[in-house]
Amino acid sequence: MLSKEEEKEILIEILEIKKDILKMIYLAKSGHPGGSLSCVTLLYLLHARILNLREKNKKKRDLFILSKGHAAPALYAVLSRIGLIPNEELYTLRQFDSRLQGHPVRNQALNIEITTGSLGMGLSIGVGCALAAKIDGENEKKIYILLGDGELDEGAVWEAAMAANHYKLDNLIAIVDRNGLQIDGNTEEIMSLEPLAEKWRAFGWHVIEFDGANLNQILEAFQKARNVIKKPTILISYLIKGADISFMEHIKKYHGRTPTSEEYEEAIRELNIIQDQLKNQ
Ligand SMILES: Cc1ncc(C[n+]2csc(CCOP(=O)(O)OP(=O)(O)O)c2C)c(N)n1
Ligand SMILES: [Mg+2]
In terms of residue numbers, what domain contains 240? Predict the structure, then answer.
């Protein structure tokens, strides 16, 4: 359980990361703000507090796969906060020769083991990695995968879900960014997912649902997931696409749209206001 002071510090840090994300996309004139802003809190807590990234022995080191690869700006900004990417490099996003392409490209120095961006593939790759870890006796290693909710429309996700249960991959922890929107609109109108938790349960997974804006709930879910045995775990995290920017929240057009200069300035102004409110609490 985080103290009130710790919680405040982390929330302020996440708002700073959100500013980085918006600046990266704004300067690149291309990218996906909505789904980057929805998942960044999860990504930050996972990288700063859960993954054992400092472990030198690769056989013991956890693996993270950003299956919803279009949220790469959020991943890069988080990797920068934990010291793997210099802040100024963030603004090379999507430039030729940059390490930071629009979707993650395998780069072990950045702890990006798997190239992603074509949706629907991360869970299958994760199942392979988790199975390999079992076969090789790498018992401490956990495999984490972040999927979008629209991404669950890909049939391969469900084949992977079946296989993970079949092989009892309790070293596999998938997370769904349940922000309710995909590229064309509301997930329930395009290809209804509900009852989503029941579906995963029927596939033999341990399911944990939580409010993805609540830091303690996120950390508790991650801790519980590490201790599940004989089953893979899915964390269904209820989130808001475009979170914290009033004119982007729940709005589908900000899935893959660059903010104009006015929008960019307004978004930064809003983040600064929230930060000031937190600091004065
Ligand atoms: C196989 C494939 N088809 C289409 C796309 C284009 N695309 C990128 S993001 C996206 C929508 C994803 O929605 P969701 O998984 O809900 O992501 P989030 O809301 O978290 O941004 C689509 C269709 C893609 N990247 N890969
Ligand atoms: Mg979505």
Answer: 4-279
